[in-house]
Design brief:
homodimer; mainly alpha; 2 domains; 3-stranded antiparallel β-sheet; 10 helices; 3 strands; globular; DNA-binding
DNA sequence: ATCGATAACATTGTATACAAACATTACAAA
DNA sequence: TTTGTAATGTTTGTATACAATGTTATCGAT
């Protein structure tokens, strides 16, 4: 694994685990210092993250952790509905016993993280569950695209997290239901469960309320 | 528009118009010479194209125009079915009269290019038609993803073009039928027409026949 | 005190230099 | 003729230097 990939992985994980939060400035010098490399390789990583839309590069201004707008958030969730419905149809066809056991194991991990109240771990594990389904579906293009959408969803969660935490517990049950549908090879049910799961995620967010700061920031989009 | 973007556009166009063909070596020095810039900016462009999977970067070996495998080709076409079905559902909902007129104009251009026998122009225009639909659908994420898939489809066309050219003429009619369905706001028909259109494209390719060279090359995948 | 202009500073954009990896060629041995 | 090895040359990977741009601070005018 090359130098770039290692740094990329570390930054990507930090993003998924919500240790890097939207709006954070990603200075080339500072990152180079931290990882012990020159700006050249940092830039390469930042450009990759920018292409995946989890980082935003403003010309001559620098790189920042992306701050998805409500519109982008809706786009991402809708794209996920489209893509993951397609994925589910393939999963039901291709899923082996081994795959199902793996999914069940992942579900257990999720439950454990919720028990312990480790929210950011759960967001990360929840993403892994969806990515596992994509891997089972066997379409590399859709899998890669979903990776982008899932990581962006993680940022969206940070920005538009609903105050009421109670609603999140269901997500785990929803994953369990999806596994059941797959086990029964019930394509229609699997797809519709996935769709309502994604709907539920979107409803958890408060996308139209309460701009986080004063109107001017929301309108002209300065980075915090 | 920055320097990178200009060079990117030129290379991307060359790719879509099939002037850059799969397997072509993209030397940093040569490209830098051609565009009058240093390797730094060339590398940036190559990395972007690599992320869009139309260019393949082999570590310490350099960049090449991607040579999609039959498996990748099938993945891309399947991903397109999933994504463009979703897009069509939105298009039927959002499409304005102006949009339809624009689609009709594009269709006329396509017909003209087929008349003149300008095959590569038609491939490019055909891609534009699909991208126009994506734009109308109003989902930026799906639109960006489809751009990737369409450009990869262009490379796939080059590599797996069927010998019989006769079958290609229908594509234009298929686009016409799709416009009709949109005009009638017939969601079901629009979606199924798009799906069979993409099936038809896939059937045009010969994905399982005739390895281009002897077995050793096919098995170990040297670039020509 | 606020606003505007200017200067000092910091950060990114690009080019280039050097190091490392790879490919090719030439040549010797089997 | 083919295979293995060494030397050469080419290409990419990384660091760094300089230029261009953006940001911030200072200072004077209103």
């Amino acid at each position: 694994m090359s130098q770039d990939d290692q740094i990329y992985s570390q930054m990507f994980s930090a993003l998924l685990e919500q240790r890097l939060t939207p709006g954070t400035k990603l200075s080339e010098d500072v990152l180079g210092e931290i990882f012990g490399v020159s700006r050249t390789v940092v830039r390469k990583v930042l450009q990759r993250l920018a292409h995946e839309k989890v980082v935003c590069i403003l010309p001559n201004r620098g790189a920042f952790v992306a701050e998805p707008t409500p519109e982008e958030a809706r786009d991402v969730l809708e794209a996920r509905r489209v893509v993951e419905a397609g994925i589910m149809r393939n999963v039901v066809k291709h899923c082996s016993q081994t795959d199902i056991r793996r999914l069940e194991a992942m579900l257990k991990e999720e439950e454990a993280s919720i028990e312990k109240g480790e929210h950011s771990t759960w967001v990360s594990l929840s993403g892994d569950f969806h990515m596992a389904l994509a891997a089972i579906s066997g379409n590399k293009s859709l899998e890669d695209f979903l990776r982008e959408l899932v990581s962006r969803t993680s940022l969206i969660h940070v920005q538009y997290q609903s105050k009421k935490i109670g609603t999140q517990n269901c997500s785990c049950e929803e994953h369990a239901d999806i596994i059941d549908a797959i086990r029964d090879a019930d394509e229609g049910r699997a797809v519709s469960l996935m769709l309502s799961h994604l709907d539920a995620i979107e409803e958890t967010l408060n996308l139209d309320g309460d701009k986080p700061e004063s109107d001017l920031y929301a309108i002209f989009g300065g980075s915090k």
